Automatic annotation (TrEMBL):
Domain spans labelled Fumarylacetoacetase-like C-terminal: 94-252
SUPFAM superfamilies: FAH
Keywords, alphabetical: Lyase
Origin: domain of life: Bacteria
Protein name (record): 4-oxalocrotonate decarboxylase
InterPro entries to which the protein is assigned, alphabetical: Fumarylacetoacetase-like_C, Fumarylacetoacetase_C_sf, Hydratase-Decarb/MhpD_sf
Organism annotation: Micromonospora musae
Organism placement in taxonomy: Bacteria, Bacillati, Actinomycetota, Actinomycetes, Micromonosporales
Length: 256
């Protein structure tokens, strides 16, 4: 049996991102399943690498109930981060470069020495050199931000851009830190790092396990976005966004 046209799907999603133009869902019409969707995500990454981008990390998606409920998909997923997606802390993004951007507050890890595939993380402080507050800017390439599980995986889990705040050494507890998302000085979302799989450290175990199933091994020096602590909020032109994570500090982004 001939499978879905993974390269064609990646091209369609890549063009949608490059031109900030939404596309229709693809999985139902192409028979895309989860494995083929990760293959399409890899082809989408290849498209970026071929134009000179560098793979710098991995992100987890749908690690909280709030996020799952927001998009109607209830499985933890993962995607790829490249250097071009990174916006400096306090930097500005052009809303017009995206289709329907949303922002969400996250916790980022700077990876250090990771266990061999299949091995559990022994000492978290050996596996993670530093932690930081972060903002993820997501932008589904599908019309109306509506998709199935394989659709969103192929679309690199809606990854678009990200901001990392100041790195700090790993604090004693990460499992119940208060999280705020502020837009223009007003609180837009309130949460806790407990919303991220009960403890964001668990997201790293899941990332190693789930990416490993598709032959992807996390690397020392990579950034790892553990997931959002709250639902995502639409990003409007002119907005000033702050993600505040207790003990870790603040990451900021402006939209033009
Ligand atoms: O980072 C995320 O949790 C996004 C996962 C994909 C679903 C969405 O676009 O919200
Ligand atoms: Mg996210």
């Amino acid at each position: 049996m001939i499978g879905p046209d993974v390269a064609g799907i990646a091209e369609r999603l890549g063009l949608a991102a490059d031109t900030a133009t939404a596309t229709g869902q693809l999985a139902a019409e192409t028979g895309l399943d989860v494995d083929a969707a990760y293959a399409a995500q890899t082809a989408l990454l290849r498209r970026r690498l071929d134009r000179g981008e560098r793979l710098v990390g991995l992100k987890m998606g749908l690690t909280s109930r709030a996020k799952m409920a927001q998009v109607g998909v209830d499985e933890v997923i993962w995607g790829r981060l490249t250097d071009v997606m990174r916006v400096p802390d306090g930097g500005t993004v052009d809303v017009g470069a995206y289709i329907h951007p949303r922002v969400e507050p996250e916790v980022a890890f700077l990876l250090d020495r990771l266990p061999a595939p299949g091995e559990p993380i022994g000492d978290f402080r050996e596996a993670v050199r530093a932690v930081a507050p972060a903002i993820e800017l997501i932008d589904s390439r599908y019309a109306d931000f509506t998709f199935s599980l394989p659709d969103v995986i192929a679309d690199n889990t809606s990854a678009a851009s990200f901001v990392i705040g100041p790195w700090s050494p790993v604090p004693d507890g990460l499992e119940n830190l208060g999280v705020l998302l502020e837009i223009d000085g007003r609180v837009a979302q309130v949460g806790s790092t407990a919303a991220i799989l009960g403890d964001p450290r668990r997201a790293l175990d899941e990332g190693i396990r789930l990416a490993g199933r598709h032959g992807v091994r996390l690397r020392e020096g990579w950034v790892f976005l553990a997931g959002a602590a709250t639902a995502a909020v639409p990003l409007r032109p002119g907005a000033h966004v702050r993600a505040v994570v207790e003990k870790l500090g603040t990451a900021t982004l402006r939209a033009s």
